[in-house]
Design brief:
Layout lengths: L1 H4 L5 E3 L3 E3 L3 H9 L7 H17 L6 H15 L1 E2 L10 H4 L1 H7 L1 E2 L1 H14 L4 E5 L6 E6 L5 E4 L1 H6 L10 H4 L20 H4 L2 E2 L3 H12 L5 E8 L3 H17 L6 E10 L2 E10 L7 H6 L1 H11 L5 H15 L23
Parallel strand pairs: 3-4, 8-9
Antiparallel strand pairs: 1-2, 5-6, 6-7, 9-11, 10-11
């Protein structure tokens, strides 16, 4: 039925990056027979085998194998960036180029993750948004359930934030056509749920998230709390939205606070990631110091986007008479609270 509705194995992403099937390669790895592979497929198999030999052991449970693959990709493969000159799109969207050059676009992360988890015996499909502007993965683990993983999402954001998401969680930041893919309805291996600290009152959320929020390094944290009655839910939503608003106040970091429903509970996620002004790392700045001086002389110094944003934000706040502006999340009348903890 899936094949009749759309070929999910061969999709063009962003009108530029071709997703191709790698099933012949993973099948050859599992069978131990690579005779029928093309030369390119044999090279891909060889580099992929080297990765797995370094990070995966046969004794590992499926989840640990998947997590090791995810961590290798996120830790080792850089994002190609927007506006870069790509002479060979296969280098950034096909596993051979991604593994060799350690650079990828979203399609490259998705196809490389799929190949490696397929090679260790896990079912995996590549998902994409309805307009085919972004791609990621959905993988089946030994509980018989499917989980959504977006490696690109975590390169751009916080590690583990897009790892093994359930459908409610992924829907906060992703869109897809549900009929094309299995339902991500597990919870046993959802990273956010597995690693969440359990709390019983809304006020506990404040205590659990204050340290991650104020961390001086990138951090992922999650909290699980019973929904409770309507008043309790109102407090939870108010706290989450209030923390989220304050996440815009950092000059050198992005902090996102979201929540999703899981049965009778809410799972709250806080993701804090630091970034470099202009996308240039300190390592590159030092390495290309002479170039930087020449560029500054010709084009002027790098602008401080954070300062410009802060000024715009202050102006907007003045225009709204100092009230919190957040597209309706916090209404000054209906969502106000007298709780001193909040």
């Amino acid at each position: 039925e899936l094949e009749e509705s759309e070929d999910t194995e061969n999709v063009l992403i962003a009108d530029q990056y071709q997703i191709r099937s790698t099933k012949t390669i993973s099948d050859a790895y599992i069978s131990g027979n690579s005779d029928d592979l093309t030369e390119e497929e044999k090279k891909t198999l060889d580099v992929a085998k080297e990765v797995l030999e370094d990070i995966v052991k046969d004794s590992m449970p499926d989840y640990e194998k998947e997590k090791a693959i995810y961590e290798w990709i996120v830790d080792n493969v850089k994002h190609d960036g927007e506006g870069g000159i790509v002479l060979n799109t296969d280098d950034v969207c096909y596993p051979l180029g991604v593994i060799e050059k350690k650079t990828a676009v979203c399609a490259g992360y998705a196809t490389t993750f799929r190949l490696l988890v397929n090679m260790v015996g896990l079912d995996c499909m590549i998902m994409h948004s309805p307009e085919k502007g972004h791609s990621w993965d959905i993988v089946k683990l030994d509980d018989g359930c499917w989980y959504i993983t977006d490696c690109y999402f975590d390169i751009e954001g916080t590690k583990y934030g897009g790892f093994n998401m359930v459908k409610e969680q992924a829907a906060v930041s992703h869109e897809w056509e549900a009929d094309l893919y299995p339902e991500a309805n597990g919870s046993k291996y959802c990273y956010a749920i597995m690693n969440a600290e359990s709390v019983s009152t809304p006020e506990d959320i404040i205590d659990k998230l204050k340290d991650p929020f104020n961390s001086e390094k990138s951090v992922y944290a999650s909290v699980v709390i019973p929904k409770g009655d309507e008043e309790n839910q109102g407090k939870i939503q108010y706290i989450v939205n209030s923390i989220s608003e304050r996440g815009w106040g950092f000059d050198d970091a992005a902090t996102e606070t979201t929540y999703f429903e899981n049965g009778d509970n809410y799972v709250i996620e806080l993701k804090k990631s630091f970034y470099n002004e202009g996308g240039i790392s300190e390592e590159d700045s030092e390495k290309y110091k002479d170039l930087e001086e020449a560029i500054n002389k010709a084009f002027g110094d790098m602008p401080s986007y954070d300062e410009e944003y802060t000024e715009d934000y202050v102006d907007m706040e003045m225009e709204t008479n100092g009230e919190i502006y957040n597209e309706g999340m916090l209404d000054s009348e209906s969502d106000s609270t007298d709780d001193p903890a909040v």
